[in-house]
Design a protein that fits this description.
By secondary structure, this protein is an alpha/beta fold. The protein has 2 domains: 183 residues, Rossmann fold; 143 residues, Phosphofructokinase domain (Rossmann fold, 3-Layer(aba) Sandwich), CATH 3.40.50.460. It is 36% helix and 21% strand. The strands form 4 sheets. The protein has a 7-stranded mixed β-sheet, sandwiched between helices. The protein is elongated and about 75 Å long.
């Protein structure tokens, strides 16, 4: 009887999830002759004993999914109280859920489980590994804020979307002599804002890592008007905030979520600078659609590397990109941490040399 592995996707969706599922399935079947099973909706397919909660994955099932966005297995990013409790913003797997999953893994004779997700999924994966489940993590998030890897898949695709938006906003900003403010995702890290801002030729980039002053933002825009360039492009990360202030949250379905700084900033620019300003929130557009070529390759590398870890009985780790190589890092070194932009990041210096303002300049 062939050996078996299972794979699931957790947390928010991101371009490239299906590419990992495809790579895991093909590598497991073609190289090792294993059977592959997909768990639907995170781990809920197993833990809530759904009739269709687990699906067999063969070569035909994954033959057309490489370019598809989202995940064919479904995903969840909420804490079902039967499965998880929340302590200080961190999901804690209940003992009932741990025992139920361990029993299922044992009953199915699984060699290993591949968990694809961001910091929340890696946190859950680490707890499951500690409980005795053979698990390997694959890093996913458009925010690129996961430690233990240079890049997460989904990030490059999100940058492409934000850069395209800036290209389009530039034409309308120039036509109407306006300031266009683009609010992008990223939570409390500014990776999308920084990279898309440089790629899209933004004039001001505001990051959570660098609290800004409105006077400095207006000063940067006034200099453009004085030079005869009577329009401006501002990229602001959803978690950015002014000096002495705090990130802006809004409430959806009874839950507080980051967002709203773009509209707030556009209003302040109009009040302080006198320039007409409009805001656009990209939101979930950054998470949808087909993955970029880079993300397809990176996701494929991660999927194959995860299967190799299972084959080598290397568990409790996350695969990640380090330079040009895929290596593993212990999940214990990943959970509870966030990768933020450091003050000495080379792209920050390059952006400043290009004249891009970050709102912290002396005026």
């Amino acid at each position: 009887m062939p050996e078996r592995i299972a794979v699931f996707t957790g947390g928010g969706d991101a371009p490239g999830l299906n590419a990992v599922i495809r790579a895991v399935t093909r590598a497991a079947i073609l190289n090792y002759g294993w059977e592959v099973y997909g768990i639907r909706d995170g781990l809920e397919g197993v833990l809530l004993n759904r009739a269709d909660g687990v699906v067999p994955l063969d070569l035909r099932a994954v033959s057309e999914i490489l370019p598809r966005g989202g995940t064919i297995l479904g995903t969840v990013n909420k804490a079902d109280p039967r499965l998880y409790t929340v302590e200080e913003g961190r999901a804690i797997v209940t003992e009932w859920a741990k025992e139920r999953l361990k029993a299922w893994v044992s009953a199915q004779g699984l060699r290993g489980v591949v968990a694809i997700g961001g910091d929340g999924t890696m946190n859950i994966g680490y707890q499951l590994f500690e409980a005795g489940i053979p698990l390997v993590g694959v890093p996913k998030t458009i925010d690129n804020d996961l430690v233990g890897t240079d890049l997460t898949f989904g990030f490059d695709s999100a940058i492409d979307v934000a850069t395209d938006a800036l290209d389009r906003l530039r034409t309308t900003a120039r036509s109407h002599k306006r300031v266009m403010v683009l609010e992008v995702m990223g939570r409390n890290a500014g990776w999308i804002a920084l990279h898309a801002g440089v790629a899209g030729g933004a004039h001001v980039i505001l990051l959570p890592e660098i609290p800004f002053r409105l006077e400095a933002v207006c000063h940067a825009l006034r200099r453009r008007w004085q030079r005869g360039s009577q329009y401006g492009l501002v990229v602001v990360a959803e978690g950015a905030y002014p000096v002495g202030g705090a990130p802006i949250y809004h409430e959806i379905g009874g839950k507080k979520r980051l967002g709203g700084v773009g509209e707030w900033l556009a209003q302040r620019i109009y009040e302080l600078c006198g320039y007409e300003a409009r805001a656009l929130v990209l939101g979930h557009l950054q998470r949808g659609g087909s993955p970029s070529a880079f993300d397809r390759i990176l996701a494929t590398q991660y999927g194959v590397a995860a299967v190799r870890c299972v084959a080598n009985n290397t568990f409790g780790v996350m695969v990640g990109l380090h330079g040009r190589h895929i290596r593993t890092v212990p999940l214990a070194d990943v959970v509870g941490r966030q990768k933020a932009i450091s003050p000495d990041d080379p792209l920050l210096d390059i952006a400043r040399d290009l004249g891009i303002a970050f709102g912290d300049e002396e005026v």
